[in-house]
Amino acid sequence: MSKSGKPIQTKGGASHPAKVAPDHLIPRSRETQLIARETFSGPMPPPALVREYEDIYPGAAKFFFDTLDKQSEHRQGLERIVVEANVRSERAGMVLAFVLAALLIGCGTFLIYQDKDPQGLSLIAGTLATLCGVFIFGRSRGKRELKEKDPSTEE
User: Fold this and answer.
1) Is 15 helix (H, G, I), strand (E, B) or coil?
2) What radius of gyration, in Å, describes the C-alpha atoms of the chain?
3) Domain locations in the chain?
């Protein structure tokens, strides 16, 4: 039979029921849905989007730029505070290390003066070795941090 339900005639005059394809094999019209998404990174949206905001709300572009300027000033102020605090901390550490090293070397010298040469020499040598170790460690750590920030930096 055909889709209309009538039998299909063949050349020899015999009729047989038509074969109908299953529903999943019959082509159907398809609907396509396109979803677009636009993203941007950074403090400001793209100029076209700023224009659209300006059309919707006059003064929006000025607000964006003023906000960006305030955030930039605030961030730079915080960075300045952090850098100044780090400098003060490092300076205090160096002063304390110098005082401690001078004190230990002075104690070692005093021990040598008191005829305790091995103890005095070991105190002085230990202090100097520690200072050298801290210096070398600090330099290698500084190079490593610099390399992490800028991998193109060579030693």
Assistant:
1) strand
2) 41
3) 44-149
